[in-house]
Amino acid sequence: MKPEEYVKYDGLGLAELVKARKVPPVELVDLAISQIDKHNPKLNAVIHKMYEQAKLSAARDLKGPFAGVPMLLKDFSQELKGEPKSGGSKALRNFRSQSDSEYVIRLRESGFLFLGQTNVPELAITAYTEPVEYGPTRNPWNRDFTPGGSSGGSGAAVASGMVPIAGANDGGGSIRIPAAYCGLFGLKPSRGRTPVGPRFARFLQGAAVEHVLTRSVRDSAAVLDQLKAMEKGAAFTAPPFDESYLQTLVKPLNQKRKIAFSVKSPIGTHVDSECVEAVKKTVSYLEKCGFQVEEVDAPVDGKKIANSFLMMYFAEVSATLASMDMVLGRKASFRDVEPTTYVMGLLGKAITAQDFVLSMREWDIAGYAMESFHDEYDFYITPATAYPPAKIGEHALKSFEKLALQVTGKMGTANLLKKMGIIDQMVEDSLKRVPFTQLANLTGQPAMSVPLHITKEGLPLGVQFMAAMGREDLLLQMAHYLEESDLWENVQNKCML
Q: CA 222, CA 123: separation in Å to the nearest integer?
């Protein structure tokens, strides 16, 4: 097989070739390696390679629906015993995983061959992938722009054709944002649908779930079939789904289903006209197809959702920094991590237990409101992001911000930043580009980004769909329906790396 043929296949397509003995797994590994070595120097998507391990695995008797298919894992929570797990931080660069994560176990049993790990922002915090330790990952559509985050390395790897499928997880949009910016399909499953153990029973308090980034809907559905199952010790369980997600794709989608949509930022910030156009073009198409469409906002307080999300993240970063002593042999200091990371940890440390519990209650209020909302509307459509991809370095701290963070970090208090108003600015800056995705993480609903728009600058933009808890099948049916439309086809044909 030639490289130009390899990049045209999705994961199931490659698996079918292996099963028919048309291509041996070791050849697919070599093809994937050639693609990584060709594109990675310019994209910086893969930060740890496992070529020899993949070749050894390819020589074994592989079983499963993805037997022989090359894949990359995200360098955050997707652990392989004995391999690095840095989470994009220099403090954890020498850390080695003590065991396989359940996610990795299930995918290995499905026949995947792991070739390496993809780049992430430090501790997977931001919606762009520019860690100081490893450098920025660049968008294959235009290397001056970000592929998004925190699964930005995975997004760039799949979009450039290194592998058809790459590991991703989503605690605030980290599957959907890279999918939106890289012209890919990205499904965030329901809370409890995919495994997060054994190190976690709840991942980011239940906000985060594991899955993949793909070029085709069927690959995402088939991987979900392999991941879904009860997990020992898990804190959450999704509503049962005993059928095959892959098989649901062939079922006709009822075109009388009701759709609600909104293009307003839930935190009251600006939404770029390209993102508005992406949604309106999509709902216009669906309305012409017979769906009942109505413009209506979700029945939740967007600012409370944003504050609850950020409070959880501050607390989680603080807890992660506190646990770094097991790796460092001492307490983590300001010099061990990026300035913003350390200050987020300080903010998390300052949160009271009372404030944290009150904040978590907002998740439940929103969850009930959205489930009631979906009693009337089958889908809720919004932009996946409020802006097209930012340029590399656009999010870099200004000189005075760096100085303020350095002083704050050394003093060990966030009071100075509060007085200067820098914290409020950091909060708005962190979410103004991506205010739409966090809701589904807090409510636990499934949500997806579908590649349906190209900007005037030639960059992709995704459209977000949400459904009721446990209705990944409905989202996948809609995605497959749109996959056969001109909207999707126009995006898929324009990435000319």
A: 28
Positive or negative torsion for Cα 471, 472, 473, 477 = positive
Q: How far apart are the first and last CA of the chain?
A: 20
Question: Alpha helix locations (H) across 123-198?
Answer: 152-159, 176-182
**Rounded CA separation 183/15 (Å):** 23
Cis, peptide link before residue 383, omega less than 30° from 0: no
pLDDT at 496 (0 to 100): 47
Which fold is adopted by the domain 3-254+447-492?
Amidase signature (AS) enzymes (3.90.1300)
Describe the strand order of the beta sheet including 292-295 as a list of residue ranges.
Answer: 46-49, 113-118, 70-74, 165-170, 209-214, 185-188, 447-454, 460-466, 379-383, 258-261, 292-295
What confidence score (pLDDT) does residue 69 get?
A: 98
Is residue 342 within 8 A of residue 230, CB to CB? The reply is no
Q: pTM, whole model, 2 decimals? A: 0.96
The residue-averaged pLDDT of 169-174 equals 98
Q: How many CB atoms lie within 10 A of CB 483?
A: 18
The three-class DSSP label of residue 149 is: coil
Distance (Å, whole) CA 447 – CA 280? 18
Other Cβ atoms within 10 Å of 233 Cβ, number: 11
CB neighbour class for 25 (10 Å; exposed up to 12, middle 13-18, buried from 19): buried
Strand partners, 210: 169
Residue-wise pLDDT for 333-360, tens only, equals 989 999 889 888 888 888 899 999 999 9
Helix (H) or strand (E) holding 463: strand 460-466
SS3 state of residue 45: coil
Q: Which residues pair with 139 in a beta bridge?
A: 142
pLDDT exceeds cutoff 50 at 53: yes
Helix (H) or strand (E) holding 165, with range, is strand 165-170
Strand partners, 167: 212
